[in-house]
Amino acid sequence: MTKGCGLVPEQVPTQVFEGRAMVAGEAAGQVLRLDEPLSFWGGLDPATGRIIDRRHPQVGQSVTNQVLVMPSGRGSSSGSSTLCEAVRAGTGPAAILMVEPDEIIALGAVVADEIYGRLIPVVVLPADRFDDLSTGIRVEVSGAVCRVGASGQTASA
To answer: Are 121 and 95 in contact (CB under 8 A)?
Structure first.
């Protein structure tokens, strides 16, 4: 990774690891890594795809088409409906990778696929891989397999 201003990005080596697919599917995009768990209910605006929880470190960031990486989900069973609504609006993430499984998030992804035909893979990461996934790195998800820093991709710090 490039340090400092990031003017000269270095090539990111490809890493492949396998997690556990809660909702299997295929997706690709840049990582948005969250420092803390996110509650979709009250924490995400499904109309814009932006994090709106004022106490969240990544408040104001957009999850739209990002590979959302977070330690876990946080709270409310209504979070599945918020995720589903974001998918309907086209503002949802491309995939969700978490260290701790969250059935509420998985339910939102399953319902979005059933109702809208738009699948968001949900994968539980091996805990030792969380730190490898920095914001801006490209990740491809296929089932439970994640390819980090696909060939030719760059990232800057």
So the answer is: yes
What's the whole-model pTM score? 0.86
Top pLDDT among 62 and 79 is at 62
Residues forming the active site: 76
Give the pLDDT score at 13: 60
Which domains does the chain possess? 27-135 (3.50.30.10)
pLDDT grade for 52, boundaries at 50, 70 and 90: very high
